[in-house]
Write a structure and sequence with these properties.
Layout: H1 3-21, H2 28-35, H3 39-45, H4 49-72, H5 79-96, H6 104-112, H7 117-143, H8 153-174, H9 178-191
Helix pairs in contact: 1-2, 1-4, 4-5, 4-7, 5-7, 6-7, 7-8, 8-9
């Protein structure tokens, strides 16, 4: 197995465990056992557990970024439908997982933003990038007449993300997509609508 394959395997298994249990509750021994590699392999690739966690954020961000590309950049669909598809794809994934794990970036924001400044800064960058992507789609929708020009595109994107993270928490607690129905009705039928 090539060195990069070992590192990716550690990151993949670590991402799965951290997503399920949280960063603090996941031990290095558990990660290397799940990856099927010796403990020394972990320290060959990562200087510390924090360094590993920071790379995990990049791993999660790539997955979310790929979904953003698939849905938000799909010019064959209207802008509101792109945003709806983006959030809806995560709801379908969560429902298939019994609403158990939530958003890995959102989970790390809650767990790590107050305890590690490097984590907070990197998480802020990831959330900021997603917010900018959403703002671009909102702005495009305004130019096309699909979304009201009375809205500030950046504030709307911030509101979308904030509402989404709250919706994720509600779905985890209720073990149901009921809260997404409320999010969807308000965001797509009231907020993101033409003039």
């Amino acid at each position: 197995m090539m060195k990069t394959d070992v590192k990716q395997k550690i990151l993949r298994e670590g991402a799965r465990l951290v997503h399920r249990k949280g960063f603090h509750a996941t031990g290095i021994a558990e990660v290397v056992k799940a990856a099927g590699v010796p403990k020394g392999s972990f320290y060959f690739y990562f200087d510390s557990k924090e360094a590993f966690g920071l790379e995990l954020i990049d791993t999660y961000a790539r997955v979310i970024g790929e979904s953003a590309r698939i849905y938000l950049l799909d010019e064959s669909r209207g802008t509101v439908e792109r945003i709806r598809g983006f959030f809806g794809s995560f709801v379908d994934f969560l429902q298939g997982n019994d609403f158990r794990d939530g958003c890995p970036i959102g989970n790390l924001c809650q767990e790590m933003a107050d305890t590690s400044e490097p984590f907070r800064k990197k998480l802020e960058t990831v959330m900021g990038t997603l917010q900018l992507n959403l703002a671009d789609v909102v702005s495009e929708g305004q130019k096309r007449g699909e979304i009201s020009t009375d809205l500030d595109s950046e504030a709307t994107a911030d509101f979308l993300l904030s509402g989404w993270q709250g919706t994720l928490l509600q779905m985890k607690v209720k073990k149901s997509r009921e809260s997404y129905g409320a999010f969807e009705a308000l965001m797509f039928d009231r907020v993101l609508k033409p003039v």
